[in-house]
User: What shape does this take?
Amino acid sequence: FQVDDIDFRSAATRLMGKLTVEPPHAIGESWKIEGLTLPGSAFGAERPGEGPITIDRGFIAANLDVQNKRLSVPRMELTGPQISLAVSLDSFQDADGPRLRLASTLGRMPVRTVLRLWPSFVASGVRSYLTDRLLAGTVAGQLSIDYNKTAFDLIAQHIAPPDSSVRMDFQISDATLMALPSVTPLRGIEAKGFATGRTSRLEIGRAHV
Assistant: This one.
């Protein structure tokens, strides 16, 4: 069956779309879900001076196994003037508890857009620093997550999960970074780096004051 004219609103965010849902045909099979966004969808601004993140095309394909409590998303894509994002994930229960595996690829995007979409539970210290200090530029990268019960418990206590549970690799271009308060920002930065649960590194190849 199909669900048309979905219109979700939260503050300034508006997501419009339609869903196609195929129920299981036999015991042990999964629900199959596909969704498309409609024109006019956008993530709203969160801070003064920000504009909306317009979504030209959004697509999701998902499988829901109710019996085994498993959600798999083989493909989710969001594209628009400021966004180029592809995600796959698998959420399930293993012998120890909840498990989440996620892989994401970011096309070249404005850094301020990436920081707005950066999940707070991924390298939160790095996210906080860059939100305050990385003022302009573009970024591309890859994110991989493998959270088990131990990682979720640590995150719930506001403790960084192990390095092995999350890694983000990124390349930054034409960026402006205020490394320290009251210090002239670095501009025209070309850099690459990574962030894990408890470790981060940034290598600047070129910059000027």
In short: The first strand starts at residue 2 and ends at 10. The helical segments are 111-117, 124-133, 149-156. Residues 124-133 form the longest helix (10 residues). The chain has a mean pLDDT of 94.
